């Protein structure tokens, strides 16, 4: 149920309105995806659309405020000694189960905004650091790249966005079984597709 619209308290309400908008956007994006109407976010936050656009002039600005925490959480995990690629992929999967919108935003090249590219590059850097260790340990294909992993997570998000939230954990586990078949190291690894 949307929050009741608050009375306009002018500039003194700015910080509270911004926090309410970010919290509402997190919920709306999780439930309805990245392309959910921004009017839904304003209603959920209990503010007018004018307030939304004063704080966030476009969808990307709002999404960046929402998903900055997700990227920071990934970076913090990756900084912990002993963190593996599997640990990072597990956290990304948890974040994707909670909200497919984040992965949609960073993995879809049709949105070439430099702010999204910077966020995507931060995720790719975390993946690349752990991927290098996994390659050296012989755990993944030698030709696997961080872009491949972003693509795999994007496919995961695409599927999870189409199933009810109650089924996402089971579906994510099954998808990773299938995806891991293509990324894990195996004797005689070669191109996945036959040469034609």
Automatic annotation (TrEMBL):
Coiled coil: none annotated. Keywords: DNA-binding, Transcription, Transcription regulation. Residues 15-74 form the HTH tetR-type domain. The keyword Transcription regulation applies. The keyword Lipid biosynthesis does not apply. It holds the Pfam family TetR_N. InterPro entries: Homeodomain-like_sf (IPR009057), HTH-type_TetR-like_transc_reg (IPR050109), HTH_TetR (IPR001647), Tet_transcr_reg_TetR-rel_C_sf (IPR036271). Residues 37-56 bind DNA. This is TetR/AcrR family transcriptional regulator. The lineage of its organism: Bacteria, Bacillati, Actinomycetota, Actinomycetes, Streptosporangiales.
